[in-house]
Design brief:
mainly alpha
């Protein structure tokens, strides 16, 4: 078992568990962000580029990242993964890992993630977008 294989297995197993828990209704950005978080990834490697790209408004909002990343351009894909990870880092650091688990369990009954965020965290998608942007800017902005 190599470190790379362990990382990939953690990532893919997370996708499998998320699919089971959420009945396949998890937004892509949340699913990808959590899989990266579980594998031990951080936004540090792409943080500066992510902060710059977000400041320039060149990445779709989370609400548009609910579906497959296949619709994104090649240069947007890597940053969409980084943004997804940043969203989960923000949730973990702000609300704790238990809140991520609680949200996952609530998705099957409330697949509209905007309303789930609003009901459970008192954050609309636009507010969440701003909070994650601030989180990224504080860590990696110039």
């Amino acid at each position: 078992m190599t470190a790379d294989l362990a990382r990939v297995l953690k990532h893919e197993l997370t996708h499998s568990f998320v699919r089971q828990i959420t009945l396949g209704r998890c937004p892509t950005w949340f699913n990808e962000g959590l899989a990266q978080l579980e594998e031990g990834a951080t936004t540090a490697g792409l943080g500066t580029q992510l902060a710059r790209t977000l400041a320039e408004g060149r990445l779709p909002p989370f609400s548009e990242l609910e579906v497959s990343f296949m619709v994104l351009t090649g240069d947007q894909v890597g940053l969409a993964y980084a943004k997804s990870l940043a969203g989960l880092e923000y949730l973990r650091e702000t609300f704790g890992p238990g809140e991520i688990q609680r949200l996952l369990k609530l998705i099957p009954a409330n697949p509209d993630f905007n309303s789930l965020l609003q009901d459970e965290l008192r954050l609309s998608y636009p507010a969440f977008e701003r909070e994650v942007g601030t989180y990224i800017d504080k860590r990696y902005g110039s």
